[in-house]
Amino acid sequence: MEEHIVIIGNGISGVTAARHIRKLSDKKITIISAETDYFFSRTALMYVYMGHMTFEHTQPYENWFWKKNKINLKKGYVKHVETNKKTLVFENGETLVYDKLIIATGSKPNKFGWPGQDLEGVMGLYSKQDLESLEQHAPNHEVCKRAVIVGGGLIGIELAEMLNSRNIPVTFLVRETSFWNGILPEGESEMINSHIKNHHIDLRLNTNLKEIISDENGKVKSVIIEETGEEIPCQVVGLTAGVSPNIDFIKNSNIETNKGIKVNRFLETNIPDIFAIGDCAEQHEAIDQRPPIEAVWYTGRMMGETLAQTICGNKTAYKPGHWFNSAKFLDIEYQTYGWVHGLKGKPDYEKHFHWKHEDDTKCITIAFNKNTNVFLGINTFGIRMRHDTFDKWLTEKRDVDYVINHLTEANFDPEFYRHYETEILAAYKNQFQTV
Amino acid sequence: MNDKQNYSMSLAKPEANQLSAKQKAAVFIGVLGLFIFALAIFNVDFPNKTMFLTLSVALISAGVILFANSLYLSKLEGIKNDGVWFKSIASRGVLAWTIGLFLTGFYIVLYFFPRYLGLGSKGAENNGLIALFDPLSFLLSGRPASQWFVYGTLYTLAILIFGYKFILKYRHNRYQQLRTFSVMFFQLGFAFLIPEFMARLNESPDYNLPYYDIKSMWPLNYYLFDGWSINGFLSSGTLGFTLLIFGILSIFVISPFLTYKYGKRWYCSWVCGCGALAETAGDSFRQLSSKKLSAWKLERWLVHTVLVFSVIMTAAVVYTYLGSDPNKFWLTRNSFLLGVGVFLTLIFTLVFVFKRQELGKDAKYGAIGFFVIIAALFAMHYTGTSDKLFLVKSSSLRSAYGLYIGSIFSGVVGTGFYPILGNRVWCRFGCPMAAVLGFQQRLFSKFRITTNGGQCISCGNCSTYCEMGIDVRAYAQKGENIVRSSCVGCGICAAVCPRGVLKLENDSMEGRINPNEILLGNDVDLMDLVNKK
User: Fold this and answer.
1) Residue B44: count of CB within 10 angstroms of its CB
2) ipTM for this model
3) How many CA atoms lie within 13 A of A65 on its CB side?
4) Between chains, do B464 and A52 touch, taking CB under 8 Å as contact?
5) Assigned CATH for A4-108+244-311
6) Of B43 and B178, more confident
7) What is the CATH number of domain A324-431?
8) CATH of domain B443-531
9) Which one of A32, A72, B48, B76 is most buried, by most CB atoms within 10 A?
10) How far is the alpha carbon of A134 from chain B, nearest alpha carbon, in Å?
């Protein structure tokens, strides 16, 4: 009998692991999910609400794919893991025996103990169930006359865009002095502030939530602002103040956890034959400048690719290459390669070159080491860049002059788009005349 | 909204999709223009046809322009797909079916019952809708209008006004704007005006030019080598001869060269009239194309069958034509058949020697297609008499092709079903030209859609909005470039991608097709180990 690999969670991490294990072996594979029957792209949920796609479009594989590749799908909620018996216990009492277990249960939205945070109409935006709840509470601007979003990160701005697409007025409460400025350098963050406002979203910086007020039926009626005491009537409150590992179901097992499930570089937990990947895994020690918990699509996928090797006999450490990420802030695309720091954790040696286009929708920030001039990373807004090229330059440890002078090679904008390299180069020479 | 297709998963209707007052007014103005056509169809005799034709065209244009302005100009530049799947017209709702039925009906009348549009039979004067277009036709070509003139005018009008709408929709994207401008130009100039002016030339006894849209190549222009067409060219002096040579060069020299350099997009989404309508008036339906693997299989069978059919039909037509007067041409029937056979065998051999790997499993089907054609050529040789081939008249083969492929497939189904099957049904499943160009694109072209390393998040916008039904995401999420014969290079996948993952470009053939197991961004040693295996 082939070894039975059981994966809890059918997100990008678990599914990538399953696909790669299947490519490498004939092992029996079972994927468990309580959320949906089939894998879907979580990052695309917003487009279903916005009417760009149907839910079926978010599923990267046709339904026959799983049977054809002999990947068993099981719908159910795992309540408990009996590690000594290698058995999963489901909420409905069913059990399932595994030889190797991969935990890939992802995240859940953070709640910080705000009064009223469990009222009807309060939701995060993470799961398909969250989306259904949003449809129920905010189908249009007559049912939902205003929504308040708490937390200025990537999910917050996506939720704002979603509600905006249905003409639902949005008040966006952001704790920081400027949008996402823990991560983004000042100039970029300010540009996004004004872009948000241009979309008629009521952006409130330096603003915290005090409490959520209920109506007589246990539904959201309004929120109170901490700083001013202002009451904002609303029907929906979106809590988007980050996510944390979704691991409550193993808290009573002997699998070691902190915020997430503790894993070593091989993505192994403290219990033999149990692994954790994706958002729910927490590295014992952070890998270079990465946080110990990486709740990012790409890293989840890479952990899945890596772990499949280990499971199939080629023990491989999780050793990701150069950092990269991307997002879209309403109409402005964002890509990053290497490290460019905002307010949070910017090392002393990191210096920035910043260029912004006069139309206030395009800018780049290039980080370099002020002592050695080595290129550290780039953030680009409204200009697409080639992953390949920056990955190569980071590996080659190119200096900042080289990167600025060769930006054209890295451009990935569609054909016939206007190029800005000349302007960027001029601005660079202007700012750093000594270089 | 159609309740059965409540894509929003919502009980209440998403409000964002209701028309504003301005948009309602625009719809009213446009419908008013169409109403004049309706009156004409029911034989209301307008006193001043020029004025009423101008009025209706102006009203229709104004309606679409005002609607587009109100839809896009009030918003910031960016992707404008909000609520697409909540709109009845764009998600196979009641409105979509109504329009689909109306268009289908229109095509059936146009192709088979033009008298209901008012075509005067046997030299009688036109009446009804066609008569309404007489003044414009006289102005351009000096002849009364025909159903084809009415159709051509409406077709061109649709491309121009919906092209305007498309340009506004993508006003942040110069690739989209330029190629839309290009199809508008080619439609107005090459497909509409030039053939009318050529008809002017025919007033002189020196010219007898057939209707000819220079940019429309064989085999899309399947009547190019019909007897009447060749006779027309050959009896029109140097100009006629030049046009015929140009027609032959376009398919055998110009198009392979441009497709090598830029992919088939240079034709399908920059020049072609079918593509022009699909990209402009059909843009609201691009998301309806099926992305299923089964649809892809059907597509490959169907489009190549049509190509084989069109090659055999054309060979038969030319064969018969050459036989009509054996002493008239230097080319004899048998040397023609031999020439076709040698040419195809040469291509077939070269492909099999140099591109076998890339063809993979499709090589078998290619071989079947090739041998069917060769067998047909032999059959022509042995069964051909002065007017019969395979014991049927070649003219029947030609009319069968014209009826089933030229009229029913490309018109009635291809355009009539826009709101149900998507805007490129013909281009994808039926167009023999697309099959030829696609073959070149897959094997001998610098064009590809480059996938940007590991940046794909599998969201599926690219696949959803691919009018050709290519599952773009399936490639992008593997970090693999998209090199597909059906890709018309419209560039919408790259436009709607929220992460900047896709770029249409022409680069070297080397490494164009690059399937990856592990994507960029992961451990370099692991990538080396797995990808170079």
Assistant:
1) 12
2) 0.95
3) 15
4) yes
5) 3.50.50.60
6) B178
7) 3.30.390.30
8) 3.30.70
9) A32
10) 9
